[in-house]
Amino acid sequence: MTHQDSQIQSGEMSYDFDMQLIGNFLSFASRGDRVGLSQMLREGISPNVQDYDKRTALHLAASEGHAPIVELLVLYKANVNPKDRWRHTPLTDARHYEHRDICRILEVNGGIDFINDQPMTVRNEKDSNEVKIDISELNMQQSSIIDQGKYGESEKVKWRGTWVVKTVIKRQIQHRVTVILSAKDNTLLRELRHPNILQFLGSIIHGEEMILISEYLPKGNLDDIMSKKTRLDLQTALRYALDIARGMNYLHQHKPFPIVHNHLNPRNLLQDEGGHLKIGEYWVHMLCEQIHPNQDNGQRKIKSGSRSSPSSDTKRDIHSFGFILYQMLEGGHEFPDSNFDCTHAVLVDFQPKFQHSKCPLRIQQLIEQCTSRTPVKEPSFTSVIQILEEVSETAQMQGRAPCPVC
């Protein structure tokens, strides 16, 4: 019996360890890792564990289209009708993302869609599942300063018994720019859900500060990883690149308006317990209100990440992604370390030269297209994902040796 098993059986396992276990389990489900999920189920974890938003492994597998995972969870007697914070069941999510095979599996096993199969009713305020955070709920005991992103002072604290990240952003960031977050944007951010974006939990206005509460990931960021290795091997770089591209594609495909990041950086790409990257600080552009020098408070212009210049801003994200991929493979180049600037993201101006890595020609061409100053050549994240998946699959089939880790 391992020490871990002994801790579990004796009831001495810490809450932190328990949350990490749940995080690993849900991560396996969302990524379709049947081997990892099977092992944890055999070791006795409940198939019904939930995350911050009451979402289970079945919710995540149904959303991502992993039919074998859904079948496995059903085999282990998972509850087929758990409701998340928005009253969605796994069948609700499977229908929303048009995974018809999963819909059939869930329906045969008694799955119900409470949203679409029931008549609409007016929900009273008291019935709302909206998360409201009060600063008095933040437990500062055993808190610690952490490096999670670029735009604020972050601290690990406990909220309702769970470790989260409290990020303080001064409401007066710089001349002519203040920080706000409308109720509408606050709700929008809380409802975003994807395995490759950091979970936003809520915000608090406290005096002259805006406090953001987000998911805590204990394994640092991409900048930390690259500081230990000058360059990453090809397979690792491709895996990280797919994580970033999938998360960014989810944000850019948001309806009715794309959510642009505009500040994509290795420091806000966080690593989860399963070793995958999640995108943080995608809310930065939403926070900023620019006051023009010749306008008073009644004539402020809101700069919102979901509503301002979406076409040019999505291209900024593509450009930043291309440079990050180049940086992972070649090393030796750093992002500009500028002060917080909501309205003017700094683009890295460089000509990619592949002197060290031995990555495929198609990846070199992709980086050149992403970082091109000719807008016509810049791909979308949808096409980026397709290229990365094809190159990764080809490399695995050919048994391609990865580039040496420097």
Automatic annotation (TrEMBL):
<protein>
    <submittedName>
        <fullName>Integrin-linked protein kinase 1-like</fullName>
    </submittedName>
</protein>
<comment type="similarity">
    <text>Belongs to the protein kinase superfamily. TKL Ser/Thr protein kinase family.</text>
</comment>
<keyword id="KW-0547">Nucleotide-binding</keyword>
<dbReference type="InterPro" id="IPR011009">
    <property type="entry name" value="Kinase-like_dom_sf"/>
</dbReference>
<dbReference type="GO" id="GO:0005524">
    <property type="term" value="F:ATP binding"/>
</dbReference>
<keyword id="KW-0040">ANK repeat</keyword>
<keyword id="KW-0418">Kinase</keyword>
<feature type="region of interest" description="Disordered">
    <location>
        <begin position="295"/>
        <end position="315"/>
    </location>
</feature>
<dbReference type="InterPro" id="IPR001245">
    <property type="entry name" value="Ser-Thr/Tyr_kinase_cat_dom"/>
</dbReference>
<keyword id="KW-0067">ATP-binding</keyword>
<dbReference type="InterPro" id="IPR002110">
    <property type="entry name" value="Ankyrin_rpt"/>
</dbReference>
<dbReference type="Pfam" id="PF07714">
    <property type="entry name" value="PK_Tyr_Ser-Thr"/>
</dbReference>
<dbReference type="InterPro" id="IPR000719">
    <property type="entry name" value="Prot_kinase_dom"/>
</dbReference>
<feature type="repeat" description="ANK">
    <location>
        <begin position="53"/>
        <end position="85"/>
    </location>
</feature>
<dbReference type="InterPro" id="IPR051681">
    <property type="entry name" value="Ser/Thr_Kinases-Pseudokinases"/>
</dbReference>
<dbReference type="InterPro" id="IPR036770">
    <property type="entry name" value="Ankyrin_rpt-contain_sf"/>
</dbReference>
<dbReference type="GO" id="GO:0004674">
    <property type="term" value="F:protein serine/threonine kinase activity"/>
</dbReference>
<feature type="domain" description="Protein kinase">
    <location>
        <begin position="140"/>
        <end position="391"/>
    </location>
</feature>
<dbReference type="Pfam" id="PF12796">
    <property type="entry name" value="Ank_2"/>
</dbReference>
<keyword id="KW-0808">Transferase</keyword>
